[in-house]
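Troubleshooting: if your tokenizer reports a length mismatch, compare your output against this known-good record of 364 residues.
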Amino acid sequence: MLALLALLSLSFGFGRHPDSQSTSRITVTEQGAGLELSVQALSLIECLEVDRDGDKRLSAAELEAGRDQIRGYFDARYQIEPTGPRNPWTLELVDGGTLGYQLVQGMTSFIVSPDCDELRIRCRLFLEQNPLHRDVATVVWRGEEPAVFLFGEGVEDWEFRSASARRGGVFAGYLQLGIEHILGGWDHLAFVLALLVGARSVRSLVAVVTAFTVSHSITLACAALEVFHVPGRLVELAIALSIAYIGAELLLVRRPGARWIEAFVFGLVHGLGFASFLGESLVLEPLKVTALFGFNLGVELGQLAVVLGVGALVLFLPGDRSYRDRPREWLVPRWVRGPVALAVLIAGLAWFLERAGWLPWGSA
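Known-good structure output:
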């Protein structure tokens, strides 16, 4: 039993204070760079022989006596590359106040090359004695929004890249995500198809698609940037109803007319659906505007590819496009409009029933 307890103590760090944690902050400016560490004095005492009187606290004299040892430990256990040589650490004792423990704050400075846009950071503070130690690291890079990272739970390395270096990759990634989402989003494709089938001419189709694009871009941006919030379930139900409505209208209203107003109104709802899809992926993304622009552009490119592809096909289909005595009043032949409108209506109603939880496989 004693052997088992000893093994557990070694494995899980029993005997070490369980809330061992630290914070680190790297600040890079055009003038230079600096690193600030704030660690618990008890964590240092557990790893280094700096507590001369054994009272589990550090005095100013003990800090001074162990200064070189602490500096060497910080240098070895918190590494940043590529940088120039570090200046000597300045160390200071700080009262933890209501936290109930002492803090040791260390500060050092170094050089980062002007053309550098990324850092490799390795933090292994106190892990040899307390494998549960955590360090909350922050990098403030040349005026950009702070980036935060958590060291611990086996994570010792952080490949930090500045926003300027990440911007192209973020844009490309969200651009691809937008294209994939629209091409795989059958409900949005059904709505776009219905708009195409209900168009009177190429000019009318351009107006309708433009209105839909502008409106869903507005609500996508507002919802993704948390200007307002609409429950996702309500949005999905409204999208299904908009699809059913446009399908029913194509079936029941025989006279061609301008539908850009409907496209604009329903586009506001579909934009909320796009924002709901993005969900939590934007929460931790500092380049929200870049990501949002890339995703929206991807949606538009995917949508444009569908409209151009299907539109080019239907223009050459034979059939009656007349309305009364006007021979080419519809863009799509009559024999195509009816079946497509019926299919869109049925699909919209089915999606609504499924999302409302009124079908066996639906979820309420």
